[in-house]
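Hey, can you fold this one?
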Amino acid sequence: MTGMSIARIYISLIAVWFLDVSVSSRILDINTPMGQELEMDSNCASGNIASSLSNMIKTLEWPDVNIVYETPYNETVLNTLRHIEQELLGFQTTLYDVTGINPSNMENMLRQIYQKKSRDVRIILFLSNITLELLEIANTFDSRSNKTTNYRTGSSWIILSSSIFKRQLLDFELKNIILLTCSRHPIGLYTLSDATITPIDCLNDCSAPEMELERKRCSVESLFPNIKHKYSKHHVLIGTLESNLLQIKVNKNNDTVYSGVVVELSEILAQYLNFTFTFVQPSDGKYGGKSRDGKWQGLVGLLDRREVDMVIAEFSITEERSKLIDFILPPFATYTWSALCKRGIQSQSNWVKVFRPFSIGVYKATLATVVAVAVLLLLVQRYSTEQSINYRFSLWNHMISVLNNILVLISFLTSRGDGVSTTKVSVRVLVAFLWMFCVVLTGVYLGNLTAALTDIKYQKPFNSLEELVQLPDWKWGIRGYSLGKTLIGNSKDNLMIKIWKGMKEFNKTDPSIFDLDINVHVNRILTNGEQYVFLGAEAKYEIMNRNDCALEIVDSFLSNFQTAIAVTKNSYLTPDLESAMVQLSDNGYLKMLDDKIYKDNRPQYCKIKNTAKRPLLLDDLLGAVLMASVGLATAIFVLLIEKCGDSLRKALAH
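Sure. Predicted structure:
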């Protein structure tokens, strides 16, 4: 059997042999007795059925198909395979002879077909008496597959049979069905859409076998209109919990109202995939974890027991959870477990800030410049013509002169500095460059002083968890039944062991250490006299959503954890959700969602970063130092010229 060698995998198409067609109206005769076989015209069956199927497959661009048939249709199946192989090179088929098959084996066959593809199942049926029975099994297959299959909207069928009634098909959950009818009348093609059976006008019947499919008019949606409806309003149960991502309130009418990022993401997915949903919360209010008898609790338990189809919540991806359930990537949020505490006290008095604009190196360089200029002025005075007459060397006099010059130059650095006045050009040049040095130095100092006076420095009560565990009278807590509690409690790290041991000790007299309500922990942090730290993934969210600057993050003690949609193992939703999330990531929606989660709602003054991140260093004032150095060099050069000029005049005078 040549078709059998090419065939393997790719399901989807089922053909309904609907022999009850009126030539004039082409409406199915719902009064034809079930199981009655109408005589089939051999020319129509062998030639035009194969041609129609081949044209449909080319239009749908199917690479393979599953053919399910009974022995009486052997010849028709072989003719169809030969025709398809001639028209479509490389096309693969898988054949299933189901003559005399029982319902149990029918179900096993459908399971085998689905497992090969997991989605987009394509099936062609060449059946008669068992057509309805097989379709009924397929129609209810999803409800028995533990949420792992989607025959309802994920399979496509082409059915050739005389035992199917219009009324029966319209009651089915299966959405993508083509009815192919042929007897002594022309071929009739019908598709199901919106609770009606509609003729396919773009296909030709056997009265004109030489005409081919009009490709310009036929499309995938014209053959299977329900494909564009995707999940066709299928109802989905979404597990969730109240958190920073989901707010739950009860209005005056006693109706539960949901809001937040979880609702927004759920509505986007529901619109994209065309399903409806209802939120389900675990009765124990937990995310996961195992009970004493080893059963999973919370949201993980709902998924494990198949009580919900997916979970959209503040639900982190972990290795242990991944063994039981599947996560849909990419994730839609990222969290870091951090230590949250009250903002520290002011670390410096205002009078100290006066000295903050410059580093110690700048002050040293300025003092060195003053001393150097004072000595230079002494030399000018020593060798100047006016003061060199009857000059007697005295160490005491030199010291007094240098100190006097230093005092003059210190006053010179102020806005009213004076006292350096002389007719000597060398001194004037020195003073000019010194003024430029002072102007630059003063301008930079005033700018940094303004920033230093307006910038408030806070000192953290501790800088790491290592310091926290050493502090007496301090306590720390975490939300009970959270992932962070599990990770800390099971950690082998010495620091985490100390953190966990401390929390267990506090819990003996203070049960709120493991309180589930984040507000309880935050209120303890802000209580006057309370020395308390909260360890959790909500730290950044709590800071951003306050209207004050009362909180800060001191340390991140666990790696980043990603939050993603979770589904049951091998869920039928997985491929479609993954495709949707990739598109939401590519178009920037997930980034926008993450920004919305961490939107900074604090007052503006909380967001201003320190303007003076460090003291001004000597390297920052190299230009001013260079200017002063050039001034000194120029003044010395002019002094030498003056000295040489005086010596020359004296020599000429003799």
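The CA atoms of residues 231 and 631 lie 84 Å apart. Let me know if you want another pass with a different chain boundary.
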